[in-house]
Amino acid sequence: MSIRTSTRTPLRILTVAGLTAAIGVTTVGHGMSADAATRSFPAKVTLNGRQHIGDSANAKGAVVDKYKAGRQVPVTCQAAHKGTLWDRTTDKLWVPDKYLTTGTDGYVSGMSKCAQDDGSLASKRYGRIDGPRGPQGGTHAQKVDRVIAAATSQTGKGLTYSWGAGGKGGPAYGVGTSPSGYHDSNRFGFDCSGFTLYAFWKGAGVDVGSNTTAQYAHAHRVKRSQMQRGDLVFWGSGSSTHHVAIYLGKGRILEADVPRDSHSVREASLSAPGSDLMPYVVRPV
């Protein structure tokens, strides 16, 4: 495309790029709409730029150490690929979204999806997902039976431990970075308190709280020496807690705990997570 500016002055040719610059239009990368802005996010680690979405860090054509740790990476759009979120840069390279600090573990609000998005993250749910309240009626024993049945129903499914994952609606993908440095947004399952939250909500319609601190402060506490089937057992020190499980009786518990593998949601020995048992247990029902 060219435009003659005047027949009385020397010929001036404007390319498309020149014309858009002249009228103030910002050109955008593939998959972006004309009103979508490029956003920049700091890299968590030094990253290789990939030529194609889904490429490994050392795939053919990768630009080694293209984006330095702590430096801003300009992103034009985002795309899901086989269950993992990727970011397209202004250099027409790809980087895994989990290595950029975007403030979320999913799509960034207001950013466009690239044309390469395969829809594999459309149904992903993260964190403390909501779900229907379970039945509230019945005797104490009946409620405990339902709670334990709800918890047991999640074992043997290959669910993994995932920080911040799971809630009233069941298992989900994790959020943020765990205290031990794991980025769990691609791990599907529960963390310890998400698992117990689900069991009591599904089995007895009781909201025990979304973390171990809230759960330890919930309802009726009794001395550990008096614990019964269906009580919540905690690990920690002082007023701080770091793990919770459901007591089954006879020295057995149901829990979601590390290691992060297909056996994270399981029945286990009461002594398994360590010796720092809290002096009280909680009886939510």
TrEMBL record:
A Pfam family this chain is assigned to: NLPC_P60
Entries under InterPro entries matching the protein: NLP_P60_dom, Papain-like_cys_pep_sf, PG_Endopeptidase_C40
An example Gene Ontology molecular-function term: cysteine-type peptidase activity
Coiled-coil residues: none
Signal peptide (UniProt feature, chain positions): none
Transmembrane segments: none
Keyword annotations from UniProtKB, A to Z: Hydrolase, Protease, Thiol protease
SUPFAM superfamilies (UniProt xref): Cysteine proteinases
Gene Ontology biological process terms, A to Z: proteolysis
Residue intervals of the NlpC/P60 domain: 141-285
Family of the protein in this entry: Belongs to the peptidase C40 family.
Protein name: Cell wall-associated NlpC family hydrolase
